[in-house]
Amino acid sequence: MEQYSENPKKHTKFEIDLKYLNGTSIRYLLSILMKLKAINDNGNNVMVNWNVPKDADDLRDLSENVLNDLQLPHHIYYN
């Protein structure tokens, strides 16, 4: 991610499809999302697609809160 963020493509699509998150994975994911926000803020187009299991209310809430707080363009899919 470090190398990519130094010379990103004009359009970046990032797919998240996790069934479970713990404290460590959340920290890593937030780090990646913050790098994507910086790429987006620098004039490149970033789209985050986050797939959430229908019955995972905690993941749904987390995905909505994080992506809205970071103001990253996104789609959240419930499957």
Q: N- to C-terminal separation?
A: 27 Å
Shape: globular
Mean pLDDT across all amino acids: 93
The major β-sheet equals:
3 strands, parallel
Low-pLDDT stretches are none
Q: What structural category arises from helix and sheet content? A: alpha/beta
Layout of SSEs?
Blueprint: H1 2-6, E1 11-17, H2 23-41, E2 45-52, H3 57-70, E3 74-78
Parallel strand pairs: 1-2, 2-3
Overview of the structural elements:
There is one protein chain. The protein is an alpha/beta fold and 79 residues long. Helices cover 48% and strands 25% of the residues. It is built from three helices and three strands. The protein has a three-stranded parallel sheet, covered by helices on one side. The radius of gyration is 12 Å and the shape is globular.
Which short descriptors sum up this protein?
alpha/beta, 25% strand, 79 residues
Quick structural overview:
By secondary structure, the chain is α/β, with parallel strands linked by helices. The protein is built from three helices and three strands, in the order αβαβαβ.
